[in-house]
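can u do me a favor
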């Protein structure tokens, strides 16, 4: 639907967060845009879109030289992080064949606030150097040698970022009206960027009927008239001028992207002088330079947009349509795609029917294969409870698998993160991939996730690959803000030494309120520093030991051992033991460390048929991961970190799958008291994925 003058309105917003982006999460860099060159990028994304271009009936013209703006232009809201508020709203603008993404940070040319340079510097520890050269910000240009200068093309307070004869994108840097500082006295990155996107005016429409009445035949003369030249009539003794056959020009669409993150920024926004040319209520005062805005996309948070000052400011754009794409639930949210509510009884009945079908199919196969002798390896006896679970209560420890996919997020599996809930004794995170905070909010709710972040005792990171740590800074910033003004110790972060370089560079953006420990210093329990010993005691843990594994260099697994406890009659009960592999090939060090573990959480990236690929990428197959559990006498094995080629359930041989192991899913929770029943999980999960298999 084209954006045309109409009464001011906030249209219903239909948006989705099902599309995830592989992007370093940052609260510091507010809004930045990416120049997209690939024509097909994101064309099939499940998103809300609203057109904002010229005549909707116009034929799409790929040739700029004919009419560069006589094509539909529109906006797509890729997702606004509304359910968990852990990511920034993402917006895609289509102008003919040009595409510009706002708030996605992994494409061709990236513009943003000047402090984005610090984020780029932090990312260089795990992102290719080629991408580092693509960051830029308003006010910075490069000379012929590629060196950065401090001046740029500027009109008033507008920085012209792009003007290619088709679209002009300019930026206004918005600073808070007074400096903000956190409890450490450091200044967090506080600049925000407003973008103004203007298409060229739409060329005057040729009136063929008028041309016919003036005796002008079809041919090159009509093209000359469109180009502004007068021509001689073919049938009449008159000169025909362009005004005789061309209608008035139509101003090109103008789209504003407004990010006003705080009330301090709002004071500055209201004082931006160059906005006067876009206000409808000042058009009469500046007739030669006034411009009509078609669409305003508001990325500002609700506590800003709902103020009287902001609402009055919005009304100054007259008939412009306003899209509220910030973190808020909008009136008119389209619920047409939501499934109907199904009762628990209906779900149970459906699953029982599927389970019965599986049993019948299995019985038929058994009859056909009755003559085949199958010899299974003898299994260790895992039907009896281990000593550590004697008299166990449900408030001792719970494992929540926040992300079970490898490499990058997908619709069904986020990247690596394991949350260990120790209840009254706090909690730990093992790895912290992108969107870990969002997963916590999906599992515990907004307020519950805040409590989880407050209670964190330690975050342990296995290695420097981005899918294992790019959610870390967001968690640390959230904890810092939640504990502001409350006495507390910095959060201990344990990881490979390269992670320290990244965190130190990131702290130029904002204070992270953490203490870093190298995994090398936690390889043996007797080398643990005092601050970690204190944390372990408070968490009811005896040891935390990092174990070198075979993946990248360096990479680690981790062993956690709970302190012994005394039961009601004074008997000493050994503490539970949990091992998390990180990413690894089966290796001697991890096998040795996993001896008689209560739970082994092991990566199983590839199916057994892809052993060569697993070896090449230093990952494990299904059977290899299960073999580690066999060798170590582990009580229960949870498999995770599956290749994204398996979107819902990984490929494995059911006949070889032991009853002491299970496949993990995002947000799956396993209480220590329920480990005995974990062996029944796979059997009951089969009906859920009958159609998939």
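np, heres the sequence
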């Amino acid at each position: 639907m084209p954006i045309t003058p109409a009464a001011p309105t906030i249209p219903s917003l239909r948006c989705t967060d099902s599309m995830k982006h592989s992007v370093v999460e940052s609260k510091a860099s507010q809004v930045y845009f990416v120049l997209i060159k690939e024509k097909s990028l994101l064309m099939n994304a499940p998103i809300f879109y609203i057109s904002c271009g010229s005549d909707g009936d116009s034929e799409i013209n790929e040739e700029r030289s004919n009419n560069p703006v006589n094509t539909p232009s529109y906006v797509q809201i890729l997702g606004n992080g509304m359910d968990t508020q852990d990511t920034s709203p993402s917006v895609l603008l289509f102008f003919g064949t040009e595409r510009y993404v706002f708030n996605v940070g992994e494409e061709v040319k990236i513009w943003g606030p000047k402090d984005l340079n610090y984020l780029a510097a932090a990312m260089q520890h795990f992102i290719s150097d080629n991408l580092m050269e693509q960051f830029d910000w308003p006010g910075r240009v490069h000379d012929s040698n590629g060196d950065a200068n401090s001046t740029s093309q500027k009109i008033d307070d507008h920085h012209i970022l792009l003007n290619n004869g088709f679209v002009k994108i300019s930026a206004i840097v918005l600073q808070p009206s007074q400096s903000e500082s956190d409890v450490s006295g450091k200044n967090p990155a506080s600049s925000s960027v407003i973008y103004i996107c203007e298409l060229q005016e739409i060329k005057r429409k040729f009136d063929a009927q008028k041309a016919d009445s003036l005796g002008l035949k079809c041919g090159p003369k009509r093209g000359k008239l469109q180009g502004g030249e007068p021509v001689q009539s073919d049938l009449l003794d008159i000169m025909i001028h362009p005004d005789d056959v061309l209608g008035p020009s139509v101003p090109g669409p103008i789209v504003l992207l407004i990010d006003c993150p705080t009330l301090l920024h709002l004071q500055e926004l209201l004082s931006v002088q160059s906005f006067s040319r876009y206000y409808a209520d000042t058009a009469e005062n500046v007739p030669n330079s006034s411009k009509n805005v078609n669409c305003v996309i508001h990325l500002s948070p609700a506590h800003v947009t709902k103020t009287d000052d902001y609402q009055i400011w919005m009304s100054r754009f007259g008939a412009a349509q306003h899209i509220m794409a910030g973190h808020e639930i909008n009136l008119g949210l389209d619920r047409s795609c939501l499934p109907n509510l199904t009762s628990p009884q209906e779900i149970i009945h459906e699953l029982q029917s599927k389970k019965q079908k599986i049993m019948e199919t299995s019985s038929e196969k058994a009859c056909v294969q009755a003559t085949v002798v199958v010899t299974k390896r003898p299994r260790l006896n895992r039907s009896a409870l281990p000593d550590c679970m004697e008299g166990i209560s449900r408030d001792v420890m719970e494992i929540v698998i926040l992300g079970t996919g490898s490499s990058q997020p997908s619709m069904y599996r986020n990247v690596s993160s394991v949350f260990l809930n120790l209840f009254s004794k706090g909690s730990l995170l093992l790895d912290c991939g992108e969107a870990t905070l969002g997963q916590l909010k999906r599992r515990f709710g907004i307020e519950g996730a805040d409590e989880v972040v407050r209670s964190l005792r330690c975050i342990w990171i296995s290695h420097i690959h981005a899918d294992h740590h790019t959610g870390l800074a967001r968690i640390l910033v959230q904890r810092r803000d939640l504990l502001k003004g409350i006495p507390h110790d910095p959060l201990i972060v344990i990881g490979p030494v390269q992670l320290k370089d990244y965190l130190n560079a990131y702290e130029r953006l904002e204070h992270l309120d953490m203490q870093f420990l190298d995994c090398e210093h936690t390889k043996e329990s007797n080398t643990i520093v005092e601050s970690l010993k204190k944390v372990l005691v408070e968490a009811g843990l005896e040891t935390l030991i990092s174990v070198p594994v075979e993946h990248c260099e360096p990479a680690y697994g981790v062993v956690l051992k709970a302190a012994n406890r005394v039961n009601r009659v004074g008997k000493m009960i050994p503490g539970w033991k949990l091992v998390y592999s990180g990413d690894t090939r089966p290796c001697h060090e991890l096998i040795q460390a996993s001896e008689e573990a209560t739970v082994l959480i092991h990566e199983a990236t590839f199916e057994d048929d892809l052993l060569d690929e697993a070896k090449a990428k230093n990952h494990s197959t299904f059977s290899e991961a299960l073999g580690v559990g066999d060798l170590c006498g582990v009580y229960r094995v949870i498999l995770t970190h599956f290749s994204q080629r398996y979107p819902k359930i990984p490929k494995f041989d059911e006949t070889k799958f032991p009853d002491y192991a299970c496949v993990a899913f995002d947000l799956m929770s396993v209480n220590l008291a329920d480990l005995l029943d974990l062996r029944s999980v796979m059997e009951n999960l089969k009906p859920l994925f009958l159609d998939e298999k």
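Residues 344-368 form the longest helix (25 residues). hope that helps!!
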